[in-house]
């Protein structure tokens, strides 16, 4: 009897080898399942990002219903002359982005009311607004929720940092840059609000959300389902340069547009380098490409291997091209 009890006790536990084998099996299963879990999470984030673009698209359509035009990608509210309390003394200091204009249509009317119409995006009152951000203005896959630009840090009492302005991840399409496409320019000797296209910060004249543009659906003769209205810009993973997403309220002061970009380079190619600030590529943390919003308020994914002729054609609202990205 005693021998039988002892034998039962010996058989009741695991040996060290058996325990190590079980742990190893569990580790292998976790290693196999983890990528699938991460892929599922990224798929959910990508879907959420597409839904953000659709919300922005509906807001732009509602804005158009009220004003019979789309807002500019970057615009000035009242005057070209900065107020005495505006920190930015350059031309276009009262510039704001299209994302400010559509705030009431993404259910952020209270935030819209906080913006000072005369001061620009760099003024202290408006900077304080941009240390918050509507959720639909940022891609959940991005690791860059705030601007990394030094001028977009809010200081209190002259030196204490109380917040970095939030970035916007969805920039307006100013249009294509390339042979046969038009630029919105002025001659260097001329005065006025158009940019000098010899300065390196050219602005396309064939998009939808340009610098001080007023484009209506009537002007999108290539078709709303064939024309890009907004593109994603939310990564630092460029082969060259730095993505540096800017504050979501930044318009086009001196025509260096923060929340509006040209289409000159392919997806995930051109980061921020001197002379190409307006030409930063649409980009994302989604594998293989980035999402865009078409003028009909539908969202689609564009491969980083996109045919450039089709891509430029889709960025143009009135080029008469028959090609578009699928």
UniProtKB/TrEMBL annotation:
Gene3D superfamilies (UniProt xref): Glycoprotein, Type 4 Pilin (3.30.700.10)
Coiled-coil stretches: none
Superkingdom per UniProt: Bacteria
InterPro entries: DUF1559, N_methyl_site, Pilin-like, Pre_pil_HX9DG_C
Pfam families: N_methyl (PF07963), SBP_bac_10 (PF07596)
Record flagged with keyword DNA repair: no
Keywords, sorted A to Z: Membrane, Transmembrane, Transmembrane helix
Keyword check for Transcription regulation: no
Domain DUF1559, first and last residues per copy: 38-308
Residue stretches spanning the membrane: 12-37
PANTHER family associated with the record: GENERAL SECRETION PATHWAY PROTEIN G, TYPE II SECRETION SYSTEM PROTEIN H
NCBIfam families recorded: IV_pilin_GFxxxE, pre_pil_HX9DG
Protein name: DUF1559 domain-containing protein
Organism: Blastopirellula marina DSM 3645
């Amino acid at each position: 009897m005693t021998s039988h009890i002892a034998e039962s006790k010996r058989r009741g536990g695991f040996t060290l080898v058996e325990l190590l084998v079980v742990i190893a099996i569990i580790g292998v299963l976790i290693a196999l399942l983890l990528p699938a879990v991460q892929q599922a999470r990224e798929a959910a984030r990508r879907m959420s990002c597409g839904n953000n673009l659709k919300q922005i698209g509906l807001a732009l359509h509602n804005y158009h219903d009220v004003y019979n035009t789309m807002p500019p990608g970057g615009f000035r509210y009242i005057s070209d002359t900065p107020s005495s309390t505006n920190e930015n003394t350059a031309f276009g200091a009262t510039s704001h982005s299209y994302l400010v204009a559509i705030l009431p249509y993404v259910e952020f009317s209270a935030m819209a009311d906080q913006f000072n119409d005369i001061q620009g995006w760099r003024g202290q009152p408006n900077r304080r607004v941009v240390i918050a951000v509507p959720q639909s203005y940022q891609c959940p896959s991005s690791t860059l929720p705030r601007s990394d630009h030094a001028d977009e840090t809010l200081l209190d009492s002259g030196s204490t940092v109380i917040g970095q302005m939030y970035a916007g991840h969805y920039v307006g399409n100013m249009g294509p840059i390339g042979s046969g496409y038009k630029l919105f320019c002025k001659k260097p000797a001329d005065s006025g609000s158009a940019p000098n296209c010899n300065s390196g910060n050219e602005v396309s004249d064939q998009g939808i959300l340009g610098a001080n543009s007023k484009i209506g659906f009537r002007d999108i003769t290539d078709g709303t389902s064939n024309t890009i209205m907004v593109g994603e810009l939310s990564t630092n993973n460029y082969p060259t340069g730095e993505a540096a997403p800017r504050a979501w309220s930044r318009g086009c002061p001196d025509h260096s547009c923060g929340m509006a970009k040209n289409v000159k380079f392919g997806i995930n190619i051109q980061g921020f380098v001197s002379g190409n600030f307006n030409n930063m590529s649409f980009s994302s943390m989604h594998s293989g490409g980035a999402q865009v919003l078409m003028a009909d308020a539908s969202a689609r994914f564009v491969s980083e291997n996109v045919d450039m002729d089709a891509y430029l054609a889709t960025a143009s609202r009135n080029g008469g091209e028959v090609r578009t990205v699928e």
